[in-house]
Amino acid sequence: MNKLSKIFLVIIIVLVLALCIMSYLYVNMRRSSKQNLDSLLTKSQELTNAYQRIDELENKINTISNAIK
């Protein structure tokens, strides 16, 4: 092998390693972002349910206070 072939081989090896590392980081980031999105959607649903429950309780309190008057 001449010197130019060795340089090209080293460049190709470095690029393949960089591609593998970037692919791993991409897959890891997608998994993490999906977990974060699922968590966000779950917490959002819990918050919506809590607000609905608060509205129901406020309506019951208003009904009871109107009945007392």
Write structural notes for this entry:
- The protein has 69 residues and is mainly α.
- 96% of the residues lie in helices and 0% in strands.
- It has one helix and no strands.
- It has one helix spanning 3-68.
- The longest helix is centred in the middle third of the chain and has 66 residues, at 3-68.
- The chain is rod-shaped, with a radius of gyration of 30 Å.
- The chain starts with a helix and ends with a helix.
DSSP strand count: 0
How widely separated are the two ends?
100 Å
The stretches of 5 or more residues where confidence is low (pLDDT under 50) are: none
Report the helical percentage. Answer: over 70%
Number of helices: 1
* SSE string, helices as H and strands as E: H
Biggest pleated sheet: none
Structural class estimated from helices and strands? mainly alpha
Q: What is the molecular shape?
A: rod-shaped
Average of per-residue pLDDT values: 95
CA gyration radius, whole angstroms: 30 Å
Task: Estimate the strand proportion.
Answer: under 5%
Structural descriptors:
69 residues, mainly alpha
Layout of SSEs?
Elements: H1 3-68
How would you sum up this structure in a few lines?
With 69 residues, the protein is mainly alpha-helical. Helices cover 96% and strands 0% of the residues. The model has no long low-confidence stretch (mean pLDDT 95).
